[in-house]
DNA sequence: CGGGAATGCAT
DNA sequence: TATGCATTCCC
């Protein structure tokens, strides 16, 4: 005969209870237990029929199990041990009401001692106590073992006894031991759970910051795992959220950066899973969805614009298409096309110049009817003089001749100067377009004719749909010459794009010192405006520190233009030096300290100095640098 | 049962 | 002495 486990206890999610919490808190569920169908641990005696006794007690989760000081409590339990009868027909025994009582730490040794004594009494037939030396021996053993026992995990040891010829249950079958049961209240075994995320989508290139609220975790023993399954449910990709222990807030929140997806160039959104994973035992939380989106950086949009097929002049022969360009809906300027470039009177002048179609009336905004032409002209401050068709044609042909003589395209452009305010479907003006396509000569010519307009400032500073000025596009594409030209024409470097970045921010982010230099030299800049934080809460020093190149020169320029090197970012109070340390960038950190006079003791909202950050990330070199430069090794994390 | 306050322990 | 978290207790 032998004893066999037919239902193991559930490993996780059961809470051990202290004596003070009272007995009845529900029993250990079975491994296959679920909400609608509860099961319990159970064993079966095989190859035997008749009465039997089964004893259950707690043992450690070790290769060689030891008695555990916790107690089994419940119906048939006494002194931490559960004893039941079974048979003679049904040889299974189920245990529906087993509780685990948590011994307090300081009682471990005492309880263990009792257990050992009880066990020895069982084995030996001595009933009248032990000699003093045995007591002593057991006490010493209990004290020494007490230290090494893990109170957060137990296993059930089942021992079956069959009756001997006297009917006494003395025939012991081989003990069987269950799977481990972990205390769900123990910090290192608690159930992992994602409660909330501030965002569930991000760029395929990763690096997006996510705030995740969770049930209690241990900051040194937790990971955020991104994973993807194929149709068959096989795991085909895994990435890890990027954070350090200091990014785990009070055990209940994690601020991390998303990992790069396996394919940065996805064309469609990809759905993956996020879950928490405990490093020590590989336990995971339930997964939550996360979507990787195709990269849509500003640069990529520009790249897309560049890849559009080149127009051909024969497209403009007047067969009803405009060469693929549509005009920005709702823009007033498009209507001005008719009035400022066509002969007075608005007849179509024999079709020599193709006239833009009037856009369909704007449906979303029906009360806004077609605008009175004179009002329109006023609004656009477009100077027009009524000219006859003949006069208009004469001007054009003269211009064309002059162009033939000089090769100076401005001869032609000047007649179209009012059209420079027209935008395409991306909201780009001709200035944007010239910059995007790196047409420096064109840009220069356009700027020359724009300069003759009264509203030249608004044309130079026009923004597209991403709220970028032509100057911003030039900065974004590292086009120094274009930047110089635009600045010369008075372009405003402080206009904010949709991320709250002005041109100086972008130059810093790109680490383009040459462009930064020219931007900083444009006229009438106010340091207050220049040294602003963008929508990510970062200032110029932060962006320059994070740049992958040109950092030193940019930092130097910022410093000499009185930018604040100690500016704290809005989200967490980190300075540029904190960022440099986080990136483990010795060069940038050194430059910030020695050349920009960065404050070594600047503290984040949580009170971390750069040295704290270095220490928590285990960055020896950079910590050494900070110390060598005089950082305070005793700085506390709680400023007064 | 589960949430969480109170207490204790290790720095 | 104060903090951060584990342990214990309470509801």
From TrEMBL:
Domain RHD: 1-188
InterPro entries xrefs: Ankyrin_rpt, Ankyrin_rpt-contain_sf, Ig-like_fold, Ig_E-set, IPT_dom, IPT_NFkappaB, NFkB/Dor, p53-like_TF_DNA-bd_sf
Pfam families for this protein: Ank_2, RHD_dimer, RHD_DNA_bind
Keyword Lyase: no
Compartments reported by the entry: Cytoplasm; Nucleus
Major location category of this protein: cytoplasm
UniProt organism field: Ciona savignyi
Presence of the UniProt keyword Nucleus in the record: yes
A GO cellular component annotation in the UniProt record: cytoplasm
ANK repeats by residue range: 426-458, 606-638
Entry's transmembrane regions: none
Annotated segments matching region Disordered: 336-374
Keywords carried by this UniProt record: Activator, ANK repeat, Cytoplasm, DNA-binding, Nucleus, Repeat, Transcription, Transcription regulation
PROSITE patterns tied to this protein: ANK_REP_REGION, ANK_REPEAT, REL_1, REL_2
Protein name listed in UniProt: RHD domain-containing protein
GO molecular function terms noted in the UniProt entry: DNA-binding transcription factor activity, RNA polymerase II-specific; RNA polymerase II cis-regulatory region sequence-specific DNA binding
């Amino acid at each position: 005969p032998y004893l066999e486990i037919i239902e193991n206890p559930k490993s996780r999610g059961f809470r051990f209870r202290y004596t003070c919490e009272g007995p009845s808190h529900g029993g250990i569920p079975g491994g296959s237990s679920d909400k609608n169908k509860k099961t319990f641990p159970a064993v079966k005696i095989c190859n035997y029929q008749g009465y039997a006794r089964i004893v259950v007690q707690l043992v450690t989760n070790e290769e060689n199990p030891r008695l555990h000081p916790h107690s089994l409590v419940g119906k048939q339990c006494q002194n931490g041990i559960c004893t039941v009868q079974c048979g003679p027909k049904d040889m299974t025994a189920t245990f529906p009401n087993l509780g685990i009582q948590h011994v307090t730490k300081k009682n471990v040794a005492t309880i263990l001692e009792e257990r050992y004594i009880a066990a020895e009494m069982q084995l030996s037939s001595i009933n009248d106590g032990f000699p003093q030396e045995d007591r002593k021996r057991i006490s010493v053993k209990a004290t020494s073992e007490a230290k090494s026992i893990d109170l957060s995990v137990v296993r059930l040891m089942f021992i079956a006894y069959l009756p001997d010829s006297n009917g006494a249950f003395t025939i012991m079958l081989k003990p069987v031991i269950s799977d481990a049961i972990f205390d769900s209240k123990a910090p290192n075994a608690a159930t992992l759970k994602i409660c909330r995320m501030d965002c569930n989508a991000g760029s395929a290139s990763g690096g997006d910051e996510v705030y995740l609220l969770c049930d209690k975790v241990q900051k040194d023993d937790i990971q955020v795992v991104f994973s993807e399954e194929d149709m068959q449910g096989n795991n085909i990709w895994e990435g890890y959220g990027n954070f350090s222990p200091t990014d785990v807030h009070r055990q209940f929140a994690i601020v991390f950066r998303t990992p790069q997806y396996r394919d940065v160039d996805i064309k469609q959104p990809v759905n993956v899973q996020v879950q928490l994973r405990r490093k020590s035992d590989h336990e995971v939380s339930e997964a939550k969805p996360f979507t990787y989106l195709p990269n849509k950086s500003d640069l990529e949009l520009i790249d897309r614009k560049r890849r559009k097929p080149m127009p051909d002049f024969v497209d403009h022969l007047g067969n009803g298409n405009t060469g693929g360009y549509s005009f920005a809906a709702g823009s007033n300027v498009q209507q001005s096309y008719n009035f400022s470039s066509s002969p007075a009177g608005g007849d179509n002048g024999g079709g020599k110049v193709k006239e833009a179609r009037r856009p369909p009336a704007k449906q979303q905004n029906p009360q806004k009817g077609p605008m009175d032409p004179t009002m329109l002209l006023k609004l656009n401050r477009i100077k027009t003089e009524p000219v006859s068709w003949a006069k208009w044609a004469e001007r054009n042909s003269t211009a064309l001749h002059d162009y033939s003589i000089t090769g100076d395209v401005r001869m032609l452009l000047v007649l179209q100067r009012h059209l420079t305010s027209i935008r395409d479907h991306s909201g780009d003006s001709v200035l944007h377009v010239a910059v995007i396509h790196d047409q420096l000569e064109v840009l220069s010519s356009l700027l020359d004719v724009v300069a003759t307009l009264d509203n030249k400032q608004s044309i130079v500073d026009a923004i597209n749909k991403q709220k970028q000025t032509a100057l911003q596009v030039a900065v974004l594409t590292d086009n120094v010459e274009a930047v110089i030209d635009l600045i010369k024409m008075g372009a405003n470097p402080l206009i904010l794009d949709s991320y709250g970045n002005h041109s100086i921010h972008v130059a810093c982010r790109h680490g383009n010192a040459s462009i930064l230099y020219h931007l900083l030299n444009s006229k009438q800049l106010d340091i207050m405006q220049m040294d602003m934080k963008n929508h990510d809460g970062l200032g110029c020093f932060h962006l320059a520190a994070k740049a992958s190149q040109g950092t030193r020169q940019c930092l130097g320029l910022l410093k000499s233009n009185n930018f604040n090197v100690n500016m704290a970012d809005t989200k967490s109070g980190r300075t540029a030096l904190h960022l440099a340390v986080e990136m483990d960038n010795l060069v940038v950190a050194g430059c910030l300290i020695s050349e920009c006079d960065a404050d070594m003791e600047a503290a984040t909202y949580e009170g971390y100095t750069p040295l704290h950050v270095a220490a928590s990330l285990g960055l020896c070199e950079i910590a050494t640098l900070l110390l060598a430069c005089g950082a305070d090794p005793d700085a506390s994390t709680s400023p007064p």
